[in-house]
Amino acid sequence: MTFEERVARLEAIASALEHDGVDLARALELFEEGIENLRAAADELARAEARVQRLVERADGGFDVVDAAE
Asked: What total of structural domains would you count in the chain?
């Protein structure tokens, strides 16, 4: 599942949980699925951030190692 698909699924889960008609068992299933998707998406973001921190291309074509927060 891609990052974008995980975010879309999280939005669908949040929408489903907002409805009053969801029974407790289903709400717990959705919540668990949401947590799994959230963790996976957070891990993917952390990996992407680590890549950005390692390599940032300079205008002259070289690369510098920099912190993504800069």
From this structure: 1
